[in-house]
Every structure is written in C-alpha cells, then in structure tokens.
Specification:
Layout (H helix, E strand, L loop, with lengths): L1 H23 L6 H7 L4 H7 L3 H17 L12 H12 L2 H14 L7 H23 L9 H21 L6 H12 L11
C-alpha cells in the first residue's frame, strides 16, 4: 500500500514537472517550483527524486511512454515511417519537453552523467525500431542502396538533429517540413552509374 502511494506521488511529481517545463522551459524548471505544485517542500521532493537530473530523466521516460502509447505507433507496437512526421509535428508543439530532452542529451555524453544510461539504452532501442520501420517500408534495401541497419542511425540523427536546429532558430527551421523533405530523400530513386569511389 505504501509503495503504491509512493509510486502515485512520484507520478504526480513528474506530471507537475512536465507542466512547469512546458510553462518555463528547461532552465526555469526549478525543483522548488515543482515541489510547490504538489504541496511538498523541496526537501520532501528530494525524497522521491534525489537530483534535478533524476527528475528530468523521469520526465523523459514519461515522454517516451506518451510517444509510444499511441499515435505514431501502429497497433502492433511498431513505428510506421509515414507516421514519424506526425511525431515531429507533435514535438513542435511542446518546445519545453524538446528543450529538456536536447539539453540532457547534450550533457549526457559526459562520463558519469545521471542521464547517460537512459540515453544509451534509448538510442539502442530506437535504432532497432527504426531498422524495423525501414525494413517494413523498403525491404532489405532502400532506393539509395543502403540497408535498413545502415540507414536507421541516419534517420534517428535527422530527427534529433533537427530538434537542436529548431530550438536554436525556430523562425528559420521548419522542423516538420525539413523532416518531410528527408522522408522524400529516403524514397528517392536509386542513383544511376557506378557508386562514388
């Protein structure tokens, strides 16, 4: 019973953190503000999440649950290439969460960062999912000649790289439009002549 209450409280804190991030952005998401939203002291919040990074990782895990709970995934649980653009559209409507993801991703490459394991595991999973998406769409070879395994890290890099560009210059970078252009490239005709060497 106590464990269920603790999990419920953690979920409430994560929801409050999502709201604060949406309102104030990644940097403005102070632990004290989140604690106040759920009727805790900052010390009380630290009982559930010992650091701000731990709370932000929980927010990202929740974000992934939303993203995979419906919408861009098919009923069988697999991504569909034609619906990935919908996920990019959705991300364009929640800059605070995208900013949190991008800021933590950048920081996580340092040794010992609390989000490093989360991102390493996430990227391994996403590359596998994108491989399956590309195989379902194109079979064993894309029009470019790349295999799904070769193209999956590129697809993932484009999605996350566009987020950085969009966050830095939202008026100059049409993230959904640019991603749709990339999907057009993936579907392009196979090159003629010998491969560049």
């Amino acid at each position: 019973m106590a464990r269920a209450r603790s999990e419920e409280r953690r979920a409430e804190i994560v929801r409050a953190a999502v709201e604060v991030i949406a309102e104030r952005g990644y940097r403005g998401a102070a632990l004290g503000t989140v604690a106040e939203r759920v009727g805790l002291s900052q010390q009380g919040l630290l009982h559930y999440f010992p650091t701000k990074e731990a709370l932000l990782v929980a927010v990202l895990e929740e974000r992934d649950r939303w993203d995979t709970g419906g919408g861009p995934r098919a009923a069988a649980g697999a991504w569909r290439l034609d619906l990935l653009a919908s996920l990019v559209d959705y991300n364009a409507m929640r800059p605070g969460i995208v900013q949190t993801f991008s800021a933590l991703l950048g920081e996580s490459v340092t040794e010992g960062h609390p989000a490093r394991e989360f991102f390493a595991e996430r990227y391994a999973q996403v590359r596998g999912e994108m491989t399956a998406v590309l195989r379902a769409e194109f079979g064993e070879q894309l029009p470019s000649g790349l295999t799904p395994e070769q193209a999956a890290p590129l697809l993932t890099a484009v999605m996350d790289g566009l987020q950085y560009q969009w966050l830095l210059a939202p008026e100059a970078v049409d993230m959904p439009g640019a991603f749709r252009s990339f999907l057009t490239l993936l579907h392009g005709a196979a090159p003629t002549g010998p491969p560049p060497g």
